[in-house]
């Protein structure tokens, strides 16, 4: 098992427990979904569509009562897909996605509902 250290600046030290809980949730979800395979073969469009699906699941969790754990885990899924997209962008700088492929009606409707 690998370990890494996160340095929290003094200015936000009071957020340490929340940051730790969220990172733990991200790692839990990555481990729980490890059987689904690696993301190296995903293209940006597919990863983005999956991110939107996770945002929908997070929205559903928020609407439920007594949903704190489910909301945390769905938020971790959203963050993990953001991580995946960032990783794809860094690793494949030469892959330039078509900006039109990222237009999503669901994102616009969630933004309007907020």
Summarize the structure in words.
By secondary structure, this protein is an all-alpha fold. It has four helices and no strands. It is globular and about 40 Å long.
Give me some keywords for this one.
single chain; mainly alpha; 61% helix
Per-chain topology:
Elements: H1 16-32, H2 44-63, H3 68-91, H4 105-113
Helix pairs in contact: 1-3, 2-3
How would you summarize what this structure contains?
61% of the residues lie in helices and 0% in strands. It contains four helices and no strands. The chain starts with 15 loop residues before the first helix and ends with a helix.
What is the average of the pLDDT values? Answer: 83
Rg (CA only): 16 Å
Structure class? mainly alpha
Order of helices and strands: HHHH
Largest sheet geometry: none
The span between the termini is 40 Å
